[in-house]
Amino acid sequence: MYSAQLRLPKRMSSEEKKGVVEGTIMAMGLQECADTPIGNWHLRGVSGGEKKRISIAQQILTRPRILFLDEPTSGLDSASAFFVTQTLRSLARDGRTVLASLHQPSSEVFALFDDLFLLSGGQTVYFGDAHRTTEFFKESGFPCPSRRNPSDHFLRCINSDFDRVTATLLGSRRILETEASDPLLKMRTAEIKSILVDKFRVSEYATSARARMHEISLIENLVMESSKGSEASWWMQLTTLTRRSFINMSRDIGYYWLRVVIYVLVSLCVGTIYFDVGTSYTAILARSACGAFISGFMTFMSIGGFPSFVEEMKVFYGERRNGFYGVSVYILSNFLSSFPYLVLVSLSSGSITYYMVKFQPGYSRFIYFSLNLFGCLAVIESLMMVVASLVPNFLMGIITGAGIMGILMMTAGFFRLLPDLPKPFWRYPISYLSYGSWGLQGQLKNDMIGMLFDPMLPGDPKLRGEDILRNMLGVGLGHSKWLDLAIIYVILISYRLTFFLVLKFNEKVSPALRSLHAKRSLEYLKRRPSFTRKPSFRSTPSFRYTTPHALSTQEGLNSPLQ
């Protein structure tokens, strides 16, 4: 239903969209699992075959004229593969053109094909009626044995990987005595492919295909309908994505629920360690250390959500390629769906630590404390989303995110005071870009301004909080704590904009870079001797094995082991 709301036109009512969804479920044979969750790392959901059919169902919701499928049966058992292919055949009978690439289909699956297009090294080996392929191979001198799957025989003729297998078997004398009877053992794959390509060029199959293409090209007023992928309104996409993401976050215990528990436990630890810290001289350092831990180390735990971010990015890239929605809608919906959970973390952790440590009392000060913690958490979430879009690998992403956050915490002003940081680079600009420096300054101002602390020596006058901030902690008082808070949210917005630019870059520039890299890799492989060397068929025979009959020579035998 989410895919329907994201893609179907806004002029359709909810009942009409629901009818389209129900019809698609019936067409794909998904009635039994219609109410079953897809599943994740801790929740068992639908099977592998059902996942394949669900992926296909998402694509046919909009009734596309042409459907491209890349290995829809890979990883499925024979029954599931047959059912998926049978479903695709039904879609083709319904007036759609279905193009699919399959890995070694079974004989039952191969019998469902209407047309077959065989490619090898970019050259057309055969294109035409699938049921006439065996006839073409027989005419070319490579008949398919009756006991062999036709698709396996075709791949055996045009796949060069079999050359190494054949050379190994010949070298071990496993098929030595049948060398003269099997034509595939006498010739290399390149020679077989060359014969088939040349034969197809002058065959009636190629003539028929060219005639059909010429006939289609002469049709007047043949205009392809262009589609932007989604016809839903921007508001419908935003609300649907937000609702779906919110539900997914609530179902995944590792996304936020586990972190909420950890935050509460850590907050209790902080509260008991700094319980009723007081206003003694030693409490000055204790209050600043507690504030640094809350704004720095507690927010560091948000890195635990990185695995969920990586999985979410995989879903986004797949749906974005299919035109489900835009980048801006996704980024905004992601923030809106996570907003309630971040508020829950901030209020639960903030309430425990604030009242157990007994920071300076006051409702407005507690509100500031919670807003400051919420902003720091949201900044880290946004930073990890940027890292997930740049480094999709789980381990490398954790290392990268932890390294960045470590640098930001070192320049926050606790480990070394802000005025003492080296001016080039660390003070300007790193400390100004660090959310931790603004968060810690705001927290210290919120807590210490207006307070009086005991002096180091009895009898000395009380120490004002303002003087402590300025002279002992290196916190400037030239601007308000609310400016510190505002800058945190500016950093939050900048990270979200960076996330937007990274996704746009990946969408526009990354395909061109991957294409260039692929071309250079192919050129490099072609120059490698191991890539161009042909396997030898004259290896020294081995006497370690007996010599069974080849499958292609077993016709007429009572047992293939004779």
Main sheet attributes: strand count, strand direction, barrel closure: 2 strands, parallel
Structural class: mainly alpha
Spatially, the strands of the biggest sheet line up as 1-2
Q: Strand tally, please? A: 8
As a whole number of angstroms, the C-alpha radius of gyration is: 33 Å
Count of runs of 4 or more consecutive helical residues:
24
- The 3D shape can be described as elongated
Mean pLDDT equals 83
- Helix amount: 55-70%
Beta content comes to 5-15%
Stretches where pLDDT is under 50 for at least 5 consecutive residues are 534-562
Distance between the termini: 58 Å
Provide structural commentary.
By secondary structure, the protein is mainly α. 60% of the residues lie in helices and 6% in strands. Mean pLDDT is 83; it is low at 534-562. The radius of gyration is 33 Å and the shape is elongated.
SSE diagram, text form:
Blueprint: H1 2-7, H2 14-27, H3 48-60, E1 66-70, H4 78-93, E2 97-101, H5 107-110, E3 115-120, E4 123-129, H6 133-139, H7 150-158, H8 161-171, H9 183-186, H10 189-201, H11 204-217, H12 234-251, H13 253-273, H14 281-300, H15 306-321, H16 327-357, H17 363-390, H18 394-410, E5 424-425, E6 428-429, H19 430-433, H20 435-448, E7 452-453, E8 463-464, H21 465-472, H22 481-508, H23 510-527, H24 529-532
Parallel strand pairs: 1-2, 5-6
Antiparallel strand pairs: 3-4, 7-8
Helix pairs in contact: 3-4, 12-16, 13-16, 14-17, 14-20, 15-17, 16-17, 17-18, 17-20, 17-22, 20-22
